[in-house]
Design goal:
9 strands; six-stranded parallel sheet; TIM Barrel; single chain; alpha/beta
Length: 349
Amino acid sequence: MSDCIQLVQKLAEEHRLTLAEYETLLRERSDALAAALREQAVRVRQAIYGNAVFTRGLIEISSYCKNNCFYCGIRAGNPKAERYRLTPEEILECCREGWTLGFRTFVLQGGEDPFFTDEVLCPLLRQIKQEFPDCAITLSLGERSRNSYQALFDAGADRYLLRHETADKEHYAQLHPASLSWEHRMACLTTLKEIGYQVGCGFMVGSPGQTERELAKDLKFVETFRPAMCGIGPFIPHRDTPFAEQSGGSVELTCYLLSILRLMQPNLLLPATTALGTLDPIGREKGVLAGANVVMPNLSPVSVRKKYALYDNKICTGEESAQCRGCLERRMQTIGYSLVTDRGDPKQI
């Protein structure tokens, strides 16, 4: 235990560990070690961001996807998935409602839908920027070409979230069909950074085949890549996927990793995800108390929220929705934090 406490102190001071040291922290995880990490993570986060929790208005623009990832409920090979696609005007209406509710970042997320070409997206992004010049636009639309990423950036996109899912090549192949490659996913992340986006990566916690070794590689990748944001959440199986019978990830391990990520990169933007709230009614509060500083309530039309079903039992109404921003704010206040009306850019340190 004392050796692990020394690793926590080393991480807090140097913001890096060896791959073997990350693996040790994961293998030796305990309640006492989690408490030590959590205490340090909160101290570091408060020194940079205080008690502010940034909000992002999530707009799930399409449940169509050309890919067949084995873990995803909207995979192309799932005939039971309910498909929808928002029009540009519907997306704009979501932004207008979100701005009124106090959101200053909009996250346009969807499957890799061939409908959303640059010709469709670029005019939409320019319109959003014209109407809301004080807002940031985050895209999470999967793998695209360099030219496409550049066009979207030039049209007004500020951030791009592309979860790497796993930093281990062999593990990636267990989770994805042969048509998708780990090398291409990593190349896309590098391209996004070169263009000038605030880039987000991320990984599933407790995905099939994952061990402490794979998680340690994820941590080491984040350490070296230095994203602006990192989205992690517990793996939750979907009934209509090849992983339907797999056990899922845990809130406790996800929070443990959030604390490690906070110490690794003190200014990192770290969401407490909807998946945490799906597994535990106070999962997002636990995430914030472990070092997270972002929440992403849902701005999508109520009529489509249940259709964007990446995993089973996703919460679709209530405090995760943007319309109940006040409810979520009160929940954050009960643990000593406050939602802020801010773009929520990463602080420079």
